[in-house]
Amino acid sequence: MEIQTSIHHQIEKLYGQNIAPEAIQLQKTKKEFEGHLTLVVFPLLKISHKNPEQTAQEIGAHLQNQIPEITSFNVIKGFLNLTLSANYWIRLLNDVHTTEHFGIRPVAENAPLVMIEYSSPNTNKPLHLGHIRNNLLGYSLAEIMKANGFKVVKTNIVNDRGIHICKSMLAWQRWGNGETPASSGKKGDHLIGDYYVRFDQEYKKELNDLKAKGLSQEEAEQQSTLMADAREMLRRWEAGDEATVALWRTMNDWVYAGFDETYKRMGVDFDKIYYESQTYLTGKEKVLEGLQKGIFYRKDDGSVWANLTADGLDEKLLLRADGTSVYMTQDIGTASLRFADYPIDRMIYVVGNEQNYHFQVLSLLLDKLGFEFGKDLVHFSYGMVELPEGKMKSREGTVVDADDLIDEMVQTAADMSKELGKLNDCTPEEAQDIARMVGLGALKYFILKVDPKKNMVFNPKESIDFNGNTGPFVQYTYARIQSVLRKASATSAALLPATPLSDKETALIQALAEFPTAVKEAADGFSPALIANYVYDLAKEYNQFYHDFPILKESNEDVRNLRLILSRNVGKVLYTGLSLLGIEAPEKM
Prior knowledge:
Blueprint: H1 2-15, E1 25-28, E2 37-40, H2 45-48, H3 52-66, E3 70-76, E4 79-84, H4 86-98, E5 113-117, H5 129-147, E6 151-158, H6 163-175, H7 181-184, H8 188-212, H9 217-223, H10 225-238, H11 242-266, E7 272-275, H12 276-292, E8 297-298, E9 304-307, E10 315-319, H13 327-341, E11 346-352, H14 356-368, E12 378-382, E13 385-386, H15 402-420, H16 428-448, E14 456-457, H17 460-463, H18 471-487, H19 503-513, H20 515-524, H21 528-548, H22 557-580
Parallel strand pairs: 5-6, 5-11, 6-7, 11-12, 13-14
Antiparallel strand pairs: 1-2, 2-4, 3-4, 8-9, 9-10
Helix pairs in contact: 1-3, 4-19, 5-20, 6-8, 6-10, 8-9, 8-11, 12-13, 13-14, 15-16, 18-21, 18-22, 19-21, 19-22, 20-21, 21-22
């Protein structure tokens, strides 16, 4: 930023006029060219009244003459490549070294408050691979927003009511024989998920039996006694039937205990949890208020709708003819309660891209109802995650369970570490903890390194490789640095300006200096992938340096000290970057 400001000032001075900041386009010089920073001169041609090469030559000569840090330049067509002095890079490294939380902006008292909703599970099944991507994206985005100086509140909305919940309840009543998590040895969310699958199996059997008697699919569905009983259970729940509500509470408590265990293993948490059973009535009230104010309208059958055709959308059902709510009603109610609880400046919903239209509608409805964050709400829309075998289906029991996947990743990390002899000098307890960090690091990094907007295929075997663009590779680089530092004597607090620098050392300092920009861009673009790929590039750059240059065996004391300080700060930034992804950094591997 300091160099950019100086260049901006000097170009204005050269041409004697004000220049918009966005016209000064600086980027890292490509490796095949000499230089550190490249100025794109095309936006400046209207001011210079010269061709690109003449403009670049003119600006380059002026900058070299006026800015001491610029030692030379070269021109490639319309690109001005600038070389900066060793003193500049040493000063920059000293700044990184003396800044404890480099790249992280402190949260001010008057900072805007960002609320981020993620997870949003249903209480009829355990968390699965799709939930893992959602939770990891939501948690990482929260950390990234905090790192950019925002106040952040992490929230969860639990879908704990509806016909899908009643299916699990009914199946447990019919075929559970009083089974509990304690009696079965199963986590509560797994137990309830089994009964959700059982309902679907029994329902399909019933439909097949009815179709065998000559009924069509539609007729069979209409005559299904099992589905009718599930609907009746939902009706009793909504009417407040004591026995039904008591069973619902008991089974939900089993699920919540299971969820909490999985969240803890994943390393994610929430500041506030909302429940659909507590928000849908508020949503109904808000919809009826909107009806009274003429924002919504009622059809002849009694249902309530929003007409959004003037906004380029269609009509949206908000309350059914029987007065029951829909998902949109619940989201309005949840937003209302959140706005009452917190002074929200921006609301971010981490939800899959199949809900894009839903959030377009919600944004408009909240704005029409007077919620200040309504128009500017952000739908952090992400792609689906699949396995190499294809899509997953909860009702058929073909999902990849989150707990099973975490177990598999940790075990694979332990097996690979043992095979490679990486944990031979660790106690069994240390080895187990490192395997946990590496297994989870592999899972998190593999998912977060992908652009959130894209669909992705999760391949467990690829994710845990100790080479290439993986979490274990970055973690191992950090552990390698800590090993070097443990073996070294203390380093000095700062470097002398005259310390000699190689091109590789300069490239590493420049890579470190780019971290604050990566943190800012990750927040601006809602993309943890930018942090993941930054730490990989930094780790790769360091490993090349480590391979080519001695550190502990370097005889020149000043150079040895430089390389130790450089190593320490690469480690510091890798640690911070990984933490923004929710990934732990082992001290040894």
